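Exercise (ungraded).
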Amino acid sequence: MNETNTFLLDGEEIPFTPGQTIIQAATAHGVYIPHLCWHPEFKAHGSCKICTVKVNGRFGSSCTMAAQAGMNVENRSTELDDKRRTLLQMYFVEGNHFCPSCEKSGNCSLQATAYELKMVSPHFDMFYPDRPVDASHPDILLDFNRCIMCSLCVTASREVDGKNVFSMGGRGLLGRRIHISSESGKLADTDFALTDRAASICPVGVILPKRKGFAVPIGERKYDKLPINLQVTEETQ
Amino acid sequence: MTDFSRIDAVLAHHDRNGTRLVQILREVQEQLGWLSPATLSYIAEGVGWPRAQVSGTAAFYSFFHTRQRGKYCVLWSDNITDRMLGNTDLMDAMCKKLWLEPGRVSEDGLVSVNTTSCTGMCDQGPALLVNYRAVTGMTLQRVDEMAELIRTEVPIAEWPAEWFAVQDNVRRTEILLAGNFAPGSALRAAHERAEVDGLSSSNNRSFRESLPHGIAGPMAMLDEIQRSKLRGRGGAGFSTRFKWEACRNAPLRADQERIVVCNADEGEPGTFKDRVLLTSYADLVFEGMTVAAYAVGATRGFLYLRGEYRYLLEPLEAVLARRRAAGLLGKSILDIPGARFDIEIHLGAGAYVCGEESALIESLEGKPGRPRVRPPFPVTNGYLDQPTIVNNVETFASAALVALHGGDWFAAIGTKQSTGTKILSVSGDVARPGIYEYPYGVTVRQVLADCGATDTLAVQISGPSGMCLAEDEFDRRIAFEDVPTAGAFMVFNTSRDMFEVARNFSHFFAHESCGFCTPCRVGTTLVRNIMDKIANRHGSPYDINELFKLHRLMQGASHCGLGNTACNPVFDTLNKFRPAYETRLMSLDYEPAFDLDAALSEARQMTGRDDAGAHFAAHSPDEANA
Amino acid sequence: MNAPAPAVKKLRVATTSLAGCFGCHMSFLDIDERIIPLLDLIEFDRSPLTDIKHCGPCDLGIIEGGLCNAENVHVLREFRKNCKFLVAMGACAINGGLPAQRNHLDLRDVLEEVYQTDVGLSHGGIPNDPELPLPLNEVHPIHEVVKIDYFLPGCPPPADAIWKLLTDLLAGRTPTLGHGLMHYD
């Protein structure tokens, strides 16, 4: 509506409507800003920091910063992509991300983002944390080895499913984890169901349907076909 | 009384209100010892919150136990100043006496011994908490006696009272610590000033006219704060008047009220001035809060007191009760129209990050202390989405004096940009550790001379997240425009090792990171691991470069100040005390972080082998001829 | 007669498989007929392909697999000492891979389970022959023990990715892997 409602993203003019964040405007315009915890259906969480951009020379999270007319935003610079790669390496050493044995491989946002950022090694020393697997639920497996703490399942369960099955609790590298709303801590003791939005929201391989694995052959999976930066508009699966 | 009826009593006391969850959890734990899965379920049901949210909150705070703890829980304060006073050896001695491994509950469930972040007793350490009661001045003799009392299961209430004595150690006073403040005098002055001065000093007439009845006093008070040029004492130095005015101007929706929060979550290692203000100057602080409430139109106040200062809860409640009785708190304060305000005390539970104002508000709302995404800021959307000011203890104390003596009087003290005085918490290698109040602008060198510091190598100002100054910077001044500080002033003499200082701080940040954002959650642990690697003589220049790289990333990309500043002590000491690192480096080549020979230890044990092939030679073996 | 063209100095390459499955080496062989022109450009030193037991000075060392025992560490150090640059090839070399799944178990429990309590296996006790390398307490990726210059992810890396890396290195280019060649699985 207002022609002054544009900002510059890597030199390209991006239109926005007031109230949109930088990443919302960029996504609507088909421009990829790397991200993990942000999902177009939900309010920004702002924790992964992969979507960090430089706004008029200062770092900021593009998922929480409101777009403003005339701002100059740097996105895919060498400096920012280097930082993003380091953040990805942090994810890969703090969890147990063994892609060859993960059913999400090829359809995983973490993996696809790491490909896009040309991450060839975890760089740091591995932490190999001991994290639990919860196979208690008849239809769903939870493998927390792969959790990236994006909280999308928490939000989806609360806002879409109205169930509050999950909550992000605890503190720090060792403490922070998903808590499950049952005294046993087991998913089977909640009212979680395969049809919940939260059951299909996980960007990595934590929440998986049972009895359905490796269904799509290698070469045909989501990110085999096209890299993640070319699938911007398909995010709302 | 059954456990559940005890929980019911606590829940009833808090109106089964989930936003009071942190207080509920603490009070239940004080009664039952720990928070069992059944307890958490019962509380969740009681407040009507999802169970995962209750267990997630309980797991966030260090002082909450979701696994059974010992009957006696001993936590040694592990700030660098406690280390310098020998806490490591004392804790080892205690563990030996009690046949314990640090961090493990004894098999009979009697006792556990571990470390905790700085408990704010740096001027009288080594300090510890026993069942969350503060103990100071530990010695080997006290360790022996304490171990004996624990072994014979003597209740803590019967332990020697002098162990729990906390000294103020006020060494230098100016306006705040003068100690001649009459409760109510600042409020009366604020109110009287409005009547005497009228509204003539204001240049904001139309704005004023839109305010409800009884605003002459509040506006005059804001004018005085403006003239005083008071800035926040928590370290960042934000203009108090801007904050208060923004809160005053923030629109209120139906059923909303404005909130005043006093941040007494004094968690920055090396800082203990708020402890003294709340011990001996509580009226000044509460009066400052009341003045603030009067100025911004707030009707509800909180004092967020760090869990380490649990022992101050009852004395502070007594001060509040006395002020209510004297008409200085409550429904009609000093009969001033519209002056309705009361204060309740919330205790933290061992989480440094709650010193960040939005994390503190989350905690007040019964949640994990995770800093919020900002904007919106607390002045418009704070406690339960209501306009809220959060100020430091010392800021409120200063505001009370501004109300009493006027802004011009206050602005005449200190420097042009940093008016008033600053209370420093001095500890470390000094003859007279304690509390020193100075007009802003005092040089570091002057403070060092006054506290009896000799052969000083470095001063860590404003805690680990602040600045480390070397000798050539001692003529710099304590002021927002030069060396800003929240109050910590830790002194290290030439016998100290600044690498070990930085390493201690790196452990602190790794422990206190809330874990929300990736750079801080993982980065603080990576930094800690690299510092340990260098300490264990496995470091190389590669690791130094890694530290710089992590510093650059965390400073720019972290969600809040904790992550942004977590590498400051490493960065400062790398720049100013580089040899402390370099003398530890093993080689110029890359070195693994772990001892390769030790990595064969389990296999050696299981096979009983000890031949040459069961070991790695020391460094740089001639592998080609192996 | 024309003078013979000056002999191009071939790149000397050593390869090894540590705690891996030789899958990466199999994938290497999947470059198929391209191995013939490749042999005009490189020569092999120590490698499962040559059966040379120790490597001499080399330009390039390619390591498959992570570190699960003392022998792995000795070989890796030999490579680092002799090679100008090292490539970590495949998931196990890069993040420990499948062998690292044992890092969640206590090595003592593993040895006891396998050699003493598990039925069906010889109950001869835990082998302690000095000829056998001792297992490390934990499996490590190789970059945790020596400096690694290049990484080639994949389980295994596709033959085309191995070819791309080698041809990039031979041409003096920093190796890059585009879409389709970069795989963690």
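Further reading is listed at the end of the chapter. For now, observe: The first strand of chain A starts at residue 6 and ends at 9. The radius of gyration of chain A is 18 Å.
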